[in-house]
Amino acid sequence: MRPIRTFNVVPSLPSRLEGLRTLAYNLQWDWDVDTVELFRRLDPDLWESSRYNPVLMLGTINQQRLQEVAEDEGFLAQIERALQRMEDYLNNRTWYRKNRSRPTDGESYAYFSMEFGLTSCMPVYSGGLGVLAGDHLKSASDLGLPLVAVGLLYQEGYFAQYLNADGWQQERYPINDFYNMPLHLERDGEGNEIRIAVDYPGRQVYARVWRVQVGTVPLYLLDTNIESNSQYDQDICDRLYGGDIDMRIHQEIMLGIGGVRMLKALGLQPSVYHMNEGHSAFLALERIRMLMDEAGLTYKEALQVATASQMFTTHTPVPAGIDLFGADKVLYYLGHYAQRFGLSDAEFLAMGREDTGDLSTPFSMAVLAIKTATFVNGVSQLHGAVSRDMFGGLWAGLPKEEVPITSITNGVHARSCVAKPTQELYDRYLGPKWSQAGSKDPLWDRVATIPDEELWRNHELCRSQMVVYVRDRLQRSLRERGASPHEISEAQEVLDPTVLTIGFARRFATYKRATLFLRDVERLRKIITASGRRVQFVIAGKAHPKDIPGKELIRKIIRFTREEGLTKSIVFVPNYDIHLSRAMVAGCDVWLNNPRRPREASGTSGMKAAMNGLPNLSVLDGWWDEADYVRTGWSIGSGEDYEDPNYQDDVEADAFYELLEQEVVPLFYGRDENGVPRGWVQKMKDAIHLNTPRFNTARMVKEYARRAYFTASDRLSRLSDHRYAPAKTLAQWQDHLLRCWYEMHIESVTIAAETELQVNQPFQVTTRLHTGDLTHHDIEVELYQGSVGVDGEIHGGEATAMAYRGQDDQGRHCYGVDLTYTHSGLQGLSLRILPKHEYLSSSLDPKVLLWANPEEVAIEVTSEFSEPITARSEVRTH
User: Fold this and answer.
1) N or C: which end of the chain has fewer CB within 10 A?
2) Residue 643: in which H helix or E strand, if any?
3) Contact 113, 280 (CB under 8 A)
4) Backbone angles phi, psi at 112, to 5 degrees
């Protein structure tokens, strides 16, 4: 029966408890451990059964209990303290104000992501990408950045995992009740829901807007589950990463295009648009259209403005992880943008193609994002190098090390992932600013002053709490499955709170090799059951519903533990989520990660473990390749690459067992007369000291701000001056540049040097070239020098700008430079021409480059050395 009228009924709280409602609707409570304790104190059982959702708890708690605490002066005082902490927090975010010297008027940064992992009661995330996005918002709030976030609100979110009796993963999709979540439905001044419309073939799809307040940062989420839409369109915001390829493009159109329209409807005009992965890249199309319609710009002018203020973070280390859509599908859903832009189908599709001449290639969301971004980064140093290799073809002829894709290594939000007792320990010895302090802050020297006994007893407490939590969670899962009383009773006995515990929790993709530790069964059994030196494993993670090989890995672990009688020592905990993650990274002793290098873009769970004092035991991939893996853990291998995966598994499994037997287990069980493993505690202290400040989203977001947000915002301001006059100039110049670029040619190169040079011996290079309809103001000429490898190519080259020396009597432009070589061996040089314009952010932006062709250029070598040309200038080393 459909209702004829609906009402949103809110909890009825005694007036003295109204502060609880204020606290509940700002997720700042999630990283304020004392506020979490306040809600838990209200009703411990309901807090847990509500999935740690204060809004739902306040709506379902017994009214009598509310009356009781309304008369409890101690509880009321705790509310007041929590409210004061929130007020102090919201009003004292000063980093941005202190570090942004001249912000543009109304400056703000829009952060688009397909998923956000903020807290357990907001299940609109699947894994690391979403949790990273959530931590980004939290640290942006901590720093006072003017950030707004954009995403989709999923009715069913990502699935809840359970295992059947055979150990096979099954999926449930609980319905999210938005009215009992910490969400605000956005309304206009007259109280009407704010709605936006997005064009799809033959229809418009409508979405309303919900807001999650994350400290000072608003996260706006679009919701298509409204009556004015068809059932299919309502389901666009049904499941995260659900449905077929058509549903995926529907979702990404809503996120990118709908997200831009939503910001406009809210009266927001961000100065920077940050695409967290390529899912939101269609936002570039909508921004170009809006600039054309509202500012009267041409397509090429609007493209310059949009690109100047957009940035892209890729999290994908393999081509298979990139969203690709067929040309016909893109034209069907988005062809009206091509018509508005005045582009042919091929020209429009080229926006998402690396090889624009190959008309058979699909449309890549990552390529679209890169082509319309002024700043592109990977999420670790190694991933940056992998990304330069993956996408280097977009800059034809450019050495891979110069491809303008940089890296900003991920981090995690300290106050969200460090256990409450451990935070209190750090607060006592390091002071309250440790969660945002940089690596050079002297407070980190105080880690050494934490008494070994106190740090160790604190960790033993966290391990015991995790064991209790895992047992309870296993029993609950078994009851829901209808398991036998015997199975449920056995779950109460899994794990030993005194035994070395290894944690492994992540998405069950095959490249993460969750079953590598099972490679040698007998050797593993000896390690696990060694008298007085036992080892146990806690494992968690989800496989994508369509990933059958990933599900097989889970079943293999379950079957192995049963067949080998190791169910108490190897425990798989179903339905991995943020809450379970926090228990594991605090309560395990070692964090294990063994992906196939270099397929782990970053990895963040190990960072969380390190912040809690856990050493990592990991393959040198992602973030761990940058860490001090000697002092803060152990490396499996030395970063080798293998062609044979089976051989790799044999070698790295053997290395894993060897490390456990020879280093990890002896260090853990090497106790003094007080029962404290001094050597182990020192490794814990090193993990805290070295990793907490470095792999922290406070550092990460500061880096995004300084390297990207500030500069992109300034660039947009510059191009927008005087009614976009600079953007118009730049677009006209670039159009002229591309028309005339291939008319240029390098005619001759003269090298004034002996046939054999000594290190640091000076020599000269001069060149003459024809520029056609371009002038010397349009280009810069560089000499490129470096060591020559066995393949005959220059490697690790250094580019030096050549000085312009005017035109000769034949109208040729002349350039020259003085050089030396600082290394011996076989060295080489070449010349190249790049674009130059005052409004370009980089000479690589137009993606054209002209190298001297040895078969076409007249090369003269002479021993005559003229007067010095100029001092070496603008040397770029890679």
Assistant:
1) N
2) none
3) yes
4) -100, 130
